[in-house]
Amino acid sequence: MKVISTESSQILAARVAREAGLEIVDVRFSRFPDGELYLRTGPIDDEMVIIGSIADSDALVQLLLLVDACESSRNVLVLPYMGYARQDKQFNPGEPLSARAIARALSPGVSRILTVNIHDETVLKHFGAPAANLSLAGEIGEYLKGMDFSHPLILAPDEGAAEFGELVASAGGWDCDHLQKTRLSGEEVRMAPRNIKADSRDVVIVDDIISTGGTLAKATEMLYEQGARNVYAVCVHGVLTGGAHTHLLASGIRDVVCSDTLERGCSRYSAAREIVSGIGDART
Ligand code: R5P
User: Fold this and answer.
1) 209 C-alpha to center of ligand 1: Å?
2) What ranges do the domains of the chain cover?
3) What is the pLDDT of residues 90-125, one digit of tens each?
């Protein structure tokens, strides 16, 4: 078994290969004169682990090409970040289920699929091969253990993320709660932890994705008004679009941390261990 990756997951793929003791296959990426993507792999194996985050449309095309280039192998496809996965419901007539479209397009030629903290696990049923979702809650817990927090409160941004927050908190036996929104008027919304006061606490907001960071920035300002000592944000996928990182720091967040499912300057913990264990399970 060998590891191969698209350009968007080179660092994570190297970590997976090192952690699993597998060889990594070299791939040359370039473009045709008209801008179309081209790639050429080195010698592949009978069994391959293909790793590619769908960070944008080019990354998706590159992943489709890589899966095709590995067609003769038995492939485990790892999608550390699955872009388009949040478009998993039809809100208006005429809209596609984008998550389904991507899942279907990537399935041919693949025998197992692994996702990481996919936004909604119901998307897994759209793949044409057995698919499993891995969670980095334990890795976030381990990362937080190395931080010097005073009386930390792990806070999920909403009730839907509460279970994720509890998994993170269980790693260190920390207090855990989720934010509750109360509408005060047409324009005014108050956000506060449902059960535990933020007063004098180091609050760590944990979420699967930080995209625009809009809700997080608003929540941070309110947590400081409620007496929080420090507010931090830790997520799995640092999409961080439209200046989100700067926007969050301007709101007073002390630090923003994400994993390497998307390779960012603030990627400070890795999905590699969890992926290696997922590959082991997929082979049995
Ligand atoms: C939503 O359900 C997700 O878990 C994230 O909370 C959301 O995608 C974050 O988006 P943004 O950073 O744009 O507020």
Assistant:
1) 6
2) 2-135+271-283, 137-260
3) 999 999 999 999 999 999 999 999 999 999 999 999
According to CATH, what is the number of the domain 137-260? Answer: 3.40.50.2020
The DSSP secondary-structure symbol of 42 reads -
pTM (whole model) above 0.85? yes
How do beta strands 230-238 and 255-259 pair?
A: parallel
Residue 122 corresponds to which amino acid? T
Architecture of domain 2-135+271-283: 3-Layer(aba) Sandwich (3.40)
Q: Which atom of ligand 1 lies at the shortest distance from residue 211's CA?
A: 12
Pocket of ligand 1 (CB under 6 A): 157, 161, 207-216
Mutate to test the pocket of ligand 1, among 205, 210, 212, 240 (most ligand atoms within 8 A of CB): 210
